[in-house]
Specification:
- The structure holds 2 protein chains of 2 kinds.
- By secondary structure, chain A is mainly alpha-helical.
- Chain A has one domain (3-113): Up-down Bundle (Four Helix Bundle (Hemerythrin (Met), subunit A)), CATH 1.20.120.
- In chain A, 78% of the residues lie in helices and 0% in strands.
- The longest helix of chain A has 18 residues, at 100-117.
- Chain B is rod-shaped.
- Chain B has 15 helices and 5 strands.
- Chain B has 2 domains: 4-169, Response regulator (Rossmann fold); 201-387, Hypothetical protein af1432 (Orthogonal Bundle).
- Helix content of chain B is 57%, strand content 6%.
- Chain B has a 5-stranded parallel sheet with strand order 2-1-3-4-5, with helices on both faces.
- Chain B has helices spanning 22-34, 51-61, 79-88, 106-114, 129-200, 205-220, 229-239, 251-254, 262-269, 271-280, 291-300, 321-336, 347-355, 364-372, 374-387, and strands spanning 14-18, 44-48, 65-70, 97-101, 119-122.
- By secondary structure, chain B is an alpha/beta fold.
- The chains are: A mainly alpha, B alpha/beta.
- The interface between A and B is medium-sized, with 24 and 23 residues.
């Protein structure tokens, strides 16, 4: 990956160094999983469950997507989801819902960055 | 740290990683492969996306698996449920299970430990590479030390199992050697007894019947109460050699047709003394369990309860009980067998002659017991006749 690509990722909230380290500095594997991010199912599942007020599914989806974002070095997303998951576990669904717009906008940012980096 | 147990060629080298998230699985798989758990090789990693798949992978690859890395919250079958199955099948005794989870609920963690998890490790992603590496260094140490303990224990158990197997093989060989030896020494006894009978022109049946009657009186009456089964069998064997001293008696007397003169009789009586001496002169016999009995029986099987027997005129309890038993068996067998100087007496007549003192006096207790197995003794002979 060249510097332009790395910068694109960084601008989209992806900590390239941490992400690469998570894949034991294997850039091919990192690219493969960045490529899978946009078709990953837990994010649409989170949106759907929140829309349908399905608490159990929402918790599971938020939890999974938190792992996914952590693995890819999407640190802002990871923190937002940790916050949302904690709210859900505390049964504070108002807060969990209130976090959704920011989570969705972060998601779009990451998607755009991955697209811009061309991986 | 001692790592020799983790580097033997047969040591399991595969982590079973159970986590429902593809991204996490990929990350952990690469991490565990390259953490350097084994000096000579990279660890291998098998993955499963829930507890059910985890159990299936385990069943197929149990021998290769060195540890199970298990998530708690998974669809289909969660980590605790899988752990319960592992505990029930005693897998947790052989393969260490590490719970790697974001779960912080105290009850869940306690339950995991109760079910036999070795360690519960908090699953995290860190903000910097340095923090991430420090985190994994710590996990590496926690896992590696447990792996070493399990590997050492498994090696120890395997080595004990190998030793046990070796010992049982040696036992089988020893048992066979003992059997061979017993066969050989039984053969030696029979050879001596056969030589005796051959010289005195008797059939092999005589010694066999003395053996059987002795065995019967010792094992089926209170006479044998002070002996265990093995001793009884040794005494019966010793009885076979009671007349071995006859080998040393000259032919003209041993095979004299008719009643012996008092002088001839005195020579004939010496077979008791010769018998004991002969046995004494075969050093190989001295180590055998029946040896002491054989010597005493050879010398004293013509003693009588009132002291009027020979060669030592022992009286009453001075005569070893087993020698008394062989005496009465010998007399009975002589009475019911045909001799050149007498016909074969029927069973009842023989019993009567023994109990009324016509053949010398016997221990009254011995006679009482003889009567109780009288029927069985008679059958012993009927059986022999049909066999012949």
């Amino acid at each position: 990956m060249d510097d332009a690509q790395k910068n694109a990722l960084k601008d989209g909230g992806i900590n390239y160094e941490v992400a690469l380290n998570n894949f034991m500095n294997n850039e091919t594997m990192l690219k493969k999983f960045l490529g899978k991010y946009t078709s990953e199912k837990s994010f649409p599942a989170l949106q759907k469950a929140m829309a349908e007020n399905d608490h159990e599914a929402a918790l599971m989806a938020a939890h999974t997507h938190k792992s996914v974002s952590g693995t890819l070095g999407c640190q802002k997303m990871n923190q937002l989801l940790a916050e949302q998951e904690a709210a859900m576990r505390a049964d504070d669904w108002a807060k969990a819902s209130a976090l959704m717009p920011e989570i969705e906008s972060e998601y779009e940012k990451i998607r755009a960055a991955i697209k811009a980096a061309g991986v | 740290m001692n790592t020799q147990f983790l580097n033997s060629p047969t040591q399991p080298d595969t982590f079973l990683l159970v986590d429902d998230d593809d991204f996490t699985r990929a990350r952990l798989e690469m991490r565990f492969e390259s953490m350097g758990f084994f000096d000579a090789k990279d660890a291998r990693v098998l993955t499963a996306s829930n507890g059910k798949e985890g159990v299936e992978e385990l069943n197929e690859n149990q021998r290769e698996i060195c540890a199970i890395i298990l998530d708690i919250n998974m669809p289909v079958m969660g980590g605790l449920e899988m752990l319960e199955i592992l505990a029930k099948n005693e897998v947790t005794d052989k393969i260490p299970v590490f719970i790697l989870t974001e779960e912080k609920d105290y009850d869940t963690i306690r339950k995991a430990y109760e079910l036999g998890a070795m360690d519960v490790i908090s699953k995290q992603t860190k903000q910097t590479v340095e923090e991430e590496e420090a985190y994994w260094k710590l996990i590496y140490r926690r896992i590696k030390s447990v792996l070493e303990v399990f590997a050492a224990r498994n090696n120890f158990e395997q080595s004990v199992a190998r030793q046990t197997e070796k010992l049982s093989e040696q036992n089988i060989q020893l048992e066979k050697a003992f059997k061979d030896l017993e066969f050989m020494y039984n053969g030696m006894i029979e050879a001596l007894a056969t030589a005796t009978e051959f010289r005195s022109g008797e059939s092999g049946e005589h010694v066999r019947r003395i053996h059987d009657i002795t065995l019967l009186l010792l094992s089926e009456t209170p006479l044998g109460k002070d002996y265990d089964a093995d001793t009884i069998s040794q005494i019966a064997k010793a009885a076979i050699l009671h007349d071995v001293g006859k080998i040393a008696i000259e032919d003209s007397i041993l095979n004299f047709k008719g009643r012996l003169s008092p002088e001839q009789m005195d020579i004939m009586k010496m077979h008791t003394v010769h018998g004991e001496r002969m046995l004494k002169q075969i050093p190989q016999l001295a180590n055998l369990p029946f040896y002491g009995y054989a010597r005493e029986i050879a010398r004293h099987h013509h003693e009588r309860w009132d002291g009027k027997g020979y060669p030592d005129q022992l009286k009453g309890d001075e005569i070893p009980l087993y020698a008394q038993i062989v005496s009465v068996a010998d007399v009975y067998d002589a009475l019911v067998s045909e001799r050149v100087y007498k016909p074969a007496f029927p069973h009842d007549k023989a019993m009567e002659m023994i109990t009324n003192g016509e053949c010398g006096s016997f221990n009254p207790v011995l006679l009482e017991n003889l009567k109780t197995v009288s029927g069985k003794i008679q059958k012993l002979y009927a059986h022999k006749e049909t066999e012949a």
